[in-house]
Amino acid sequence: MLQKHILIVDDEEDILELVRYNLEINGFQTTCVSNGEQALKTPRIHHPDLIVLDLMLPSIDGLDVCRILKGDSDTKSIPILMLTARGEESDIVKGLEIGADDYITKPFSPLVLVARVKALLRRYSEPVADEKGVITIQELTIHPGRREVKIGERLIEFTFTEFQILHLLARHPNLVFTRNQIIDEVRGDNYPVTDRTVDFQIVGLRKKLGKVDRYIKTVRGVGYRFNLEE
Asked: Cystine design at 9: which of 39, 56, 69, 177 (Cβ 3.0–4.6 Å)?
């Protein structure tokens, strides 16, 4: 099997080396660059399977790099894992809203970093649904055509919006969605609701899912993810 190729973008040499070393000992091929200009050029040359992207970069910052890559048809399908030293909610939300797929804050555990990289690559390479679009995750079954959700053999009744949110999250396990992204995906860009509306829908979802609510995880200050990771 071919090695997955990871582009690492960071202007701190020690961080660059730390990420490179841990990815390579886990079987990945890597390319390292240290500024925003190189981060924009390199994906068009080497076509990486994933980009680990620091937000604090010289010349062109990481948010702009992410926005440009996700807006280009040649590179928009490459998953991006953001690195941020600040851990500020506003930076994380901005990154996710312009297309980044996940994030990790500095300082970070190399084991967690590698796990996040592997999870992102799985999400992009393995289909979640079968040919009819039915999603089955252990005891949970979601049938979009029938708009049915079952836990084992028990049919659970959801409102339209609750079903839409559950289906969205389950189709993209382990990926973080901001509240605004959920609103846009479920109801369209101009749907007049607030962040709190999404929170209330999640409360309803969790109550109806019972023990299966363990899959719906809150990412504090950002949004929600459908978590399959141990």
From this structure: 39
The residue ranges of every structural domain in the chain are 5-125, 135-226
Q: Which of 173, 137, 159, 139 is nearest to 208 (CA)?
A: 159
d(CA 19, CA 11): 12
User: Using one digit for the tens of pLDDT, what is the confidence trace for 154-208?
Assistant: 999 888 788 889 999 998 888 899 988 888 777 654 455 566 778 888 998 999 9
Q: Which two tokens stand for residue 67?
A: 């926005």
The fold of the 135-226 domain, in CATH, is Arc Repressor Mutant, subunit A (1.10.10)
Q: What share of the chain is helix, strand, coil (3-state, %, to 5)?
A: 45, 20, 35
Q: Is 129 helix (H, G, I), strand (E, B) or coil?
A: coil
Q: At 109, list the tokens.
A: 């555990």
Closest CA to 170 of 105, 224, 96: 224
106, two tokens: 């500095």
3-state secondary structure of 206: helix
Report residue 59 as tokens: 């010349």
Which is it for the CA torsion 157, 209, 216, 133, positive or negative? Answer: negative
Q: Is pTM beyond 0.90 here?
A: no
Is there a contact between 84 and 55 (Cβ–Cβ < 8 Å)? yes
